Amino acid sequence: MWIDERRAAAGRTRTRAFWIDGDRIVYRDDLGFWAYGRFVDGVLHHAGYVLRRR
Fold first, then answer.
1. What is the Cα–Cα distance from 17 to 24, expressed in whole angstroms?
2. Does residue 38 register a pLDDT over 70?
3. Do residues 44 and 51 lie in contact, with contact meaning Cβ atoms separated by under 8 Å?
4. How buried is residue 18: exposed, middle or buried, by Cβ count under 10 Å (0-12/13-18/19+)?
5. pTM
């Protein structure tokens, strides 16, 4: 599933997308940046960070 997020910044619109497949999340933006993460027991592990819900 792709979700596009559009924000006006510095006079232009940026597009970002998130794709979730099972326990894996993939992020990409229109500048070519890609990032990956994995959910473990409801906690997101991404690029050395551990992100928990409040």
1. 14
2. yes
3. yes
4. middle
5. 0.62
